Amino acid sequence: MSQALQASDDVLTPHHVGAEMPRVIAQRLRDVGLVVLEGMASRGEVLALASRVMDITAHRDSDPDGLTTIRDTGRHLDRPGFAGFTDKELAPHTERSGIATPPRLMLLVCGRPAGQGGECLLTDARAVHAELVENRREAALALSEPRTTFFGAGDGHAAQVFTAHPAGRVSVRLRLDGLARWSPMVQPHLRDLWEATLQHQLSLRLAAGQGYLLDNTRWLHARQAFTGDRLCWRALGEPKFELPVGFAPTRMWCRD
Known about the structure:
Elements: E1 14-16, H1 21-31, E2 34-38, H2 43-53, E3 54-56, E4 68-70, E5 90-93, E6 105-112, E7 116-117, E8 120-124, H3 125-135, H4 137-142, E9 149-151, E10 157-159, E11 162-164, E12 170-172, E13 180-182, H5 190-199, E14 201-204, E15 211-215, E16 219-223, E17 226-227, E18 231-239
Parallel strand pairs: 1-2
Antiparallel strand pairs: 2-15, 3-18, 4-18, 5-16, 6-15, 6-18, 7-17, 8-14, 8-16, 9-10, 9-13, 11-12
Helix pairs in contact: 3-5
């Protein structure tokens, strides 16, 4: 994986968790789809924040309290869909892309950083979409064609990378591992998609107690490989506040 960019503005500036955090989170997610957080010293504090801003969604990998413990288990190497539980890198993806309606929000908080590596890699799909529309229009068109990709295993979901919504908004759904199967229409454009995604990737190294919350219909996330006993907690769910789906494209375009 290529070297990720460092953020040039305040998108990765951390916000300390406090009484006003739900309001700050709601506004940041509406504005840019991402908020970086600090000041969570325990799993209980992570769960408390998650419960204030989302209705937590339980799933295959979550613990009884709804959070998922993310670490190298030593048991999941080479198992499709389980790369998060290894020390290997993760390709950019939408969380739970293989279900009909992926969760709107994902919160990830570091309990213990890696010895080396393990940086979070974040990509704003709004920037990727703009890059493709501006410079690789055929790719943007193909990646917006309905049901051109099957995400997940046998019980997965057929969809497309970019989905248009009312009022002109666009959402993203992506995974770039062995659990994505592409139609012949899309396959010639995967290199363009990959390059655009990496071009706009930001690198974020989390210390203990730091994390981020993102709009899963706008931001893609990934991870560099690591060494050491890295530990994170993750929550998925639906926002307890109004949040428009996806993003407003940077420029209008038509499919002529």
